[in-house]
Design goal:
The complex is a heterodimer of chains A (about 160) and B (about 80). In chain A, about 0% of the residues lie in helices and about 50% in strands. Chain A contains no helices and twelve strands. Chain B is elongated and about 70 Å long. The N and C termini of chain B lie far apart (about 55 Å). The chains are: A mainly beta (about 160), B alpha+beta (about 80).
């Protein structure tokens, strides 16, 4: 599997939303890497600006070994809790399998937040999850919603 | 007290149909987007509260079951082998 960088953006000011539109449809999977500086809280995402897009969900974290599950339509997905503070950070990976497919798509995500910054930062809340959707539209846009501080980086890759 | 109006939250839109270097645009979020964000936030909080309640009930039930097994004479290792907790 090979990766090709589609776009990488580092915010030059604080923004509440980052949206990628007109996502090229010639890849197999879509992978998003995100490094977010502190001062945020949860990160929410939407696909194609739709609500109720994902229809099954499971997730867990280091504090929840049993995980959660839901068969109800998810209006939006929040994944991480990032403690406030300029030295806090979160690193995330979102993997959209078969994103251009019109019959089935899957999302896996994982990542971790740190609370003290620096090379010895404590990782406090690794989280992971998987989602499936019955949505039939190919993914052409993705919105990430959170208070993204200046210097947050999001990179979008496609795989072949 | 300041009379300064709060700054309108900004958004970054990256249009991948455009050439690199011309894709990004910083602009204020619209009133509709801000309103939707509030609705989504409330929706999330309600769902998270519900999940936390379920998780707490599971934890209480697990602890209760472990205590009852211990009262029956099972060792901690035996309880862990059964429950995985």
């Amino acid at each position: 599997m090979s990766f090709e960088l589609i776009e990488s953006q580092t915010t030059t000011s604080t923004v509440s939303q980052i949206e990628f539109t007109s996502i090229p449809q010639d890849g197999k999977d879509l992978v998003v890497y995100m490094m977010v500086a502190g001062a945020g809280n949860q990160i929410q995402f939407k696909v194609n600006n739709q609500t109720g897009y994902y229809h099954s969900r499971s997730m867990g974290s280091n504090t929840s070994t049993t995980g959660f599950s839901s068969s109800s339509a998810q209006t939006n997905i929040y994944v991480y809790n990032i403690a406030s503070g300029s030295t806090n950070a979160a690193s995330m990976r979102w993997h959209f399998s078969r994103y251009a497919d019109t019959t089935m798509k899957l999302l896996n995500y994982d990542g971790a937040t740190s609370t003290s910054g620096g090379s010895n930062a404590a990782i406090t809340s690794p989280e992971f999850g998987a989602l499936a959707t019955s949505g039939t539209a190919a993914i052409t846009s993705i919105q990430f919603i959170s208070p993204f501080t200046s210097g947050s980086t999001i990179s979008l890759y496609k795989t072949y | 007290m300041s009379n300064k109006a709060p700054a309108t939250p900004m958004k970054l839109t990256v249009d991948l149909s455009k050439p690199k270097g011309e894709r990004e645009a910083y602009e204020p979020m619209s009133a509709e987007e801000l309103a939707q964000s509030e609705v989504d936030g409330a929706d999330y909080q309600a769902r998270k509260d519900s999940e936390n309640k379920i998780e707490e009930a599971r934890r209480v039930a697990r602890d209760s079951a472990s205590s009852k097994l211990a009262a029956l004479g099972l060792t901690t290792e035996e309880i862990l082998a059964i429950t995985g907790a």
